[in-house]
């Protein structure tokens, strides 16, 4: 990238990093890692499908990571058992995460005196923690997040900037909620009385079980009287809508812009591709 200092290393160093086999000059200098489409001279990329080999001829890429069972190709390379895992390690070598120190509770956060925060909880500036909230050890609440009354947040969970947890939301351990997600908003239920729409009861709450991940700008509505539940290990992409009273099973994968109407249920290991729409009161079985 222009204007950014690029790290200098060699093909041999990267091969040792990923425990791979060097094909070509181990002293070949390398300065970055990029997917093939974006690679420039001095970059290493990866090939995980034979159809990508011919694309190398028109690319300035200097070296590639390839599967261990491939024959040698006409380009310096590193053979590995798991191409994507190895390339991820190489990317992190060139762009290591910034070392951070946990800062504790910011004096600019607003925390109700009845809230209970366990050891090593971090609350960033301008976050709001409401009455009777309980936050377990090691959780992180980022700037401008709002945690409303009686919410419970499990150990090592992370709430990113601008996310909102409405009252009584229950979050398990190691849950990740990305920026601007809204958990526990009122469901869309109205009764028409004397020509006017009157909001129905919205007295429930949301449960996110352990290791759930909620994408940016996703919404999960509270149940009418009981919980809307997202099962353990389920991963939900950005801009997804889960309506009131839904029960999603364990380890589901829900892609962007899916909409799931009220009182629908899924089994475990269900996958929904982008923009799938599920009507209300539907049951979807395991591994669908």
Summarize the entry for a quick read.
By secondary structure, the protein is mainly beta.
What is the arithmetic mean of pLDDT? 95
The CATH architecture of the largest domain comes to 3 Solenoid
Counting DSSP H or I runs of 4 or more residues, the number of helices is 2
**Which geometry do the CA atoms define?**
globular
Question: Could you name the CATH topology of the largest domain?
Answer: UDP N-Acetylglucosamine Acyltransferase, domain 1
Structural commentary:
The protein has 288 residues and is mainly beta. It folds into 2 domains: 9-94, MurE/MurF, N-terminal domain (Udp-n-acetylmuramoylalanyl-d-glutamate--2,6- Diaminopimelate Ligase, Chain: A, domain 1), CATH 3.40.1390; 110-284, UDP N-Acetylglucosamine Acyltransferase, domain 1, CATH 2.160.10.10. Helices cover 7% and strands 31% of the residues. The chain has 2 helices and 35 strands. The strands form 7 sheets. The protein has a 9-stranded parallel sheet, with no helix packed on it. The protein has an 8-stranded parallel sheet with strand order 10-13-16-19-24-27-30-33, with no helix packed on it. Strand 21 (190-193) and strand 22 (196-199) form a beta hairpin. The chain is globular, with a radius of gyration of 24 Å. The mean pLDDT is 95.
Write out key terms for the chains shown:
UDP N-Acetylglucosamine Acyltransferase, domain 1; Udp-n-acetylmuramoylalanyl-d-glutamate--2,6- Diaminopimelate Ligase, Chain: A, domain 1; single chain; about 290 residues; mainly beta; globular
């Amino acid at each position: 990238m222009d204007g950014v200092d690029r790290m200098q290393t060699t093909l041999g160093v990267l091969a040792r990093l990923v425990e791979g086999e060097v094909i070509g000059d181990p002293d070949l200098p390398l300065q970055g890692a990029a997917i093939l489409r974006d690679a420039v001279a001095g970059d290493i990329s990866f090939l995980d499908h034979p159809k990508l080999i011919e694309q190398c001829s028109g690319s300035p890429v200097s070296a590639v990571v390839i599967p261990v069972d491939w024959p040698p190709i006409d380009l310096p390379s590193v053979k590995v058992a798991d191409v994507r895992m190895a390339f991820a390690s190489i990317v992190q070598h060139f762009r290591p995460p910034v070392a951070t120190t946990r800062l504790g509770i910011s004096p600019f956060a607003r925390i109700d005196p009845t809230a209970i925060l366990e050891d090593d909880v971090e609350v960033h500036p301008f976050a709001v923690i409401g009455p009777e909230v309980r936050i377990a050890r090691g959780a992180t609440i980022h700037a401008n997040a709002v945690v409303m009354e009686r919410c419970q947040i499990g150990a090592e969970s992370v709430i990113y900037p601008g996310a909102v947890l409405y009252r009584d939301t229950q979050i398990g351990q190691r849950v990740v909620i990305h920026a601007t997600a809204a958990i526990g908003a009122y469901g869309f239920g109205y009764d028409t009385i004397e020509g006017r729409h009157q909001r129905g009861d919205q007295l429930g709450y949301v449960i996110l079980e352990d290791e759930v991940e909620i994408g940016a700008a996703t919404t999960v509505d509270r149940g009418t009287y009981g919980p809307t539940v997202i099962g353990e290990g389920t991963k939900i992409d950005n801009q997804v809508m889960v309506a009131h009273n839904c029960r999603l099973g364990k380890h589901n994968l829900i892609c962007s812009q899916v909409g799931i109407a009220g009182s629908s249920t899924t089994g475990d290991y269900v996958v929904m591709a982008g923009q799938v729409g599920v009507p209300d009161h539907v049951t979807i079985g395991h591994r669908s």
